[in-house]
Amino acid sequence: MESKSSGAFQRPQAAILAARLNEPRRFIQVVVGPRQVGKTTLVQQVAAMMPQPVRYASADEPTLRGREWIAQQWEAARLAIAGREDAVLVLDEIQKIPAWSETVKRLWDEDSRLGRPLKVVLLGSAPLLIAQGLTESLAGRFETLVLGHWTFAEMRGAFGFGLEEYLFFGGYPGAAALISDPARWARYVADSLIETSIARDVLLLTRVDKPALLRRLFELACRYSGQVLSYTKMLGQLQDAGNTTTLAHYLSLLAKAGMVCGLPKFAGDVARSRGSSPKLQVLNTALMTAMTGLGFEEARADREFWGRLTESAVGAHLANAALAGECTVYYWREGKQEVDFVVTAGRRIVAIEVKSGRTPRAHAGTAAFVKAFKPQRVLLVGGDGIALEDFLAQPVGHWLRDR
């Protein structure tokens, strides 16, 4: 089991960013997404293709950076415009500068007022802090480009992953070179991805009164990915004196960090959906498998676990599209009748049932859902429906359109 190098593989968002930077100066471009999805690599690839001067600077240095650093980099980029139509300034790890958004706002507005054609790209590894700075200071001045976890099509194209490898090892490009040694791969995911994301992207950047509870909630969400659990039942599992509001907040923080989320119940009513018990869902199946201690062959031989892994891969594919703003994802359940995933985009409703091989299931739930909500499409993934490999290889938008 080996992984080939990604080489010069480019994610589709590279072309989008390049096109935006070739337009007249209009908005600050903000590249957002969880850790280790290739934000810096993508921006550097785009910078290498640009005909105009590009100044790249990163605040990720051992020496302490202050707001004056932003001004210094900005002024150097302004000088690059001399005699040219425009230039591009890229500021990486911007969230490490205290009060960065106020400084960016001042400099951007100054350029706008004086007609300077300097284009700006911001990116960082802390989605929560980046979002906070944007909403507090830069409203109306930016547009985002969301980089989610790598899809099956991307991991196959860049590293030669097969379907089973993708289900188990997930979509972290930095970990792909380690899959020939699953124990080493699991340690890397646990230490460099999970622990770093929780410690640096959640606990250091937001108020968390019970960090141990947040960590146990993450572990619970990985263990029960694909299952509906009430917050009350979660508290019982976690054996903590917290409350349901705290759990809901922590689950939201973990979702914004690109780790796990809770899918709401589809009810045709926003308020009722928000008050429902969540369906726990990992956003990258690597988080689920790295936490189990199972090796690749052990996991594949465990039909129950492999079935949950399969359903979680479908859920992650959908949930990452939802985080990018392409759709909204729910589950549906009434009594013993259920539908694995309900996807909405505008007024379109698509019901998705996953035949994961855990247990033979009749699809009475789908029939009940169709009668109640009249979805535009009903999809069966796996079994005698759409092949799992085909479903994961296509963007979610492909399955929302009429055939």
Q: What does this protein look like?
A:
Helices cover 47% and strands 16% of the residues. The relative contact order is 0.10. It has 18 helices and 11 strands. The protein has helices at residues 13-21, 39-49, 67-79, 100-114, 127-137, 152-159, 163-169, 182-203, 211-223, 231-238, 244-256, 270-274, 285-290, 296-301, 303-323, 364-373, 388-393, 396-400, and strands at residues 28-32, 54-58, 87-92, 118-123, 142-146, 260-263, 279-282, 328-334, 337-345, 348-354, 377-381. The protein is globular and about 70 Å long. The chain folds into 2 domains: 13-146, P-loop containing nucleotide triphosphate hydrolases (Rossmann fold), CATH 3.40.50; 152-400, no CATH class. The strands form 3 sheets. The protein has a 5-stranded parallel β-sheet with strand order 2-3-4-1-5, with helices on both faces. The chain has a 4-stranded mixed β-sheet with strand order 8-9-10-11, sandwiched between helices. A two-stranded antiparallel sheet has the order 6-7. With 403 residues, it is an alpha/beta fold.
Q: Largest sheet, described in full?
A: 5 strands, parallel
Task: Let me know the number of strands.
Answer: 11
Helix content: 40-55%
**What sequence of helices (H) and strands (E) makes up the elements?**
HEHEHEHEHEHHHHHHEHEHHHEEEHEHH
Structural class: alpha/beta
Q: Please tell me what the overall shape is.
A: globular
State the low-pLDDT regions, or none.
Answer: none
Straight-line N-to-C gap: 37 Å
Number of helices: 18
Characteristic terms for this protein:
11 strands, Rossmann fold, alpha/beta, 2 domains
